[in-house]
Design a protein that fits this description.
Blueprint (H helix, E strand, L loop, with lengths): L3 H12 L5 H8 L3 H13 L19 E9 L4 H10 L3 E7 L4 E8 L2 H12 L5 E8 L13
Antiparallel strand pairs: 1-3, 1-4, 2-3
């Protein structure tokens, strides 16, 4: 069971996962060692799955962020999942409820690369029944995980 200090630690880590144990300890009123022990416990319990960074894809040349909804034949689901997981352009891949529905988020440099991705990596796949491709116009909020 989490207490208010655990919740505060999770909140601060979600805002800045690089905060030092010392700085975090000052904020929550514990020693650095106690904070480290709590974070280790949260990791071991699977509450914290990973520490990560957010990379601005646009600054690295990936100017187009797009989303696919793919309906696939059940017999081809595993094969399609493996191919999409291995594709470097695919950054998020979810299997959703419904008729074998996959949600795919991919990043590319320009519209020519959208076309190449769709033809080489999607339309060529055996077992695709339906494709909906949506290009992100503007991001207003981006958050992974749970609000604390």
């Amino acid at each position: 069971m989490l207490d208010s200090i655990d919740n505060l630690i999770l909140l601060r880590l979600s805002q800045n996962s690089r905060i030092s144990y010392t700085d975090l300890a000052k904020e929550v009123g514990l020693s650095g060692v106690a904070v480290k022990e709590r974070i280790d416990r949260l990791v071991n319990q699977g509450i914290i799955e990973q520490f990560s960074i957010v990379i601005n894809a646009e600054k690295l040349g990936k100017k187009i962020s797009a989303y696919l909804e793919l309906e696939v034949e059940p017999a081809h689901l595993d094969e399609i999942l493996e191919l999409l997981k291995a594709n470097e352009r695919v950054v998020v891949l979810y299997e959703m409820t419904g008729p074998c529905l996959l949600h795919v988020h991919y990043l590319v440099e320009d519209m020519d690369e959208v076309d190449r991705f769709m033809h080489e990596s999607i339309y060529s796949l055996k077992g695709i029944l339906r494709v909906e491709n949506q290009i992100l116009l503007k991001r207003h909020k981006n958050q992974d995980g749970l609000n604390i």
